[in-house]
Amino acid sequence: MSSAAKEKKNLAKGFQPLGDRVFVTYTEELERTAGGIYVPDSAKEKPQRGIVQAIGKKVENVKVGDQVLFDKYSGSKLRIEDEECLILKEEDILGIFTS
């Protein structure tokens, strides 16, 4: 787990999703155009990729630390300590990235 992922892990401390819900933080993706120009955060869409920080008791297919792909408009967005996070249902997760 990268140091950024470890730092973000603290965001879930003291928070337990209920039922089949999953608490996810967005992964940092540095986006570049074909010409090599970096796209500023204000011009980018939110990533559909994140790291699972906490899971509800009914979640069966993902675990804390998994890097997942989820539906673009799914879940409830919230801000914790200036980080944008997402709470979504397990069914909104499309897949898990493997090494």
UniProtKB/TrEMBL annotation:
GO terms for cellular component: cytoplasm. InterPro entries: Chaperonin_GroES (IPR020818), Chaperonin_GroES_sf (IPR037124), GroES-like_sf (IPR011032). The keyword Protein biosynthesis does not apply. It is found in: Cytoplasm. Keywords: Chaperone, Cytoplasm. One of its GO terms (molecular function) is unfolded protein binding. Together with the chaperonin GroEL, plays an essential role in assisting protein folding. The GroEL-GroES system forms a nano-cage that allows encapsulation of the non-native substrate proteins and provides a physical environment optimized to promote and accelerate protein folding. GroES binds to the apical surface of the GroEL ring, thereby capping the opening of the GroEL channel. HAMAP family: CH10. Belongs to the GroES chaperonin family. Heptamer of 7 subunits arranged in a ring. Interacts with the chaperonin GroEL. This is Co-chaperonin GroES. It comes from Nitrospira lenta. The gene is groS.
